Amino acid sequence: IRCSQIADVLEYVHTGYIMDAPLNNRHCEYALNLLDVVNRFKGGDIGTRFSPEMRTALILTGETIDPSDFSAVEKKKDRYKVLLDRIKNDLQGLSLDIEEFL
Predict the structure, then answer these.
(1) How many CB atoms lie within 10 A of CB 32?
(2) 3-class SS at 94?
(3) Radius of gyration over alpha carbons of the chain, in Å?
(4) pTM for this entry
(5) Is the pLDDT of residue 20 over 80?
């Protein structure tokens, strides 16, 4: 179990996430992930992770995706790809919005 908990955290530690980004909240998130890795190696778990003070929650919602918008695409495989692309683009837009807010 310990190895799987460490592997779970290591999934989020990749330099590509911060490589081309200007100094922003992604770098803070990356540092927190590194602290989480250290915590896991010391025997900690999600309940003992570092938690900075003065936290606030922010929820941004995107537009509703209506599956009928994709009914014109005949092949199921193509329809699935178009839908996934839409979801990916919407999530990237929300990510940029929240980074600007922060």
Answers:
(1) 15
(2) helix
(3) 18
(4) 0.49
(5) no
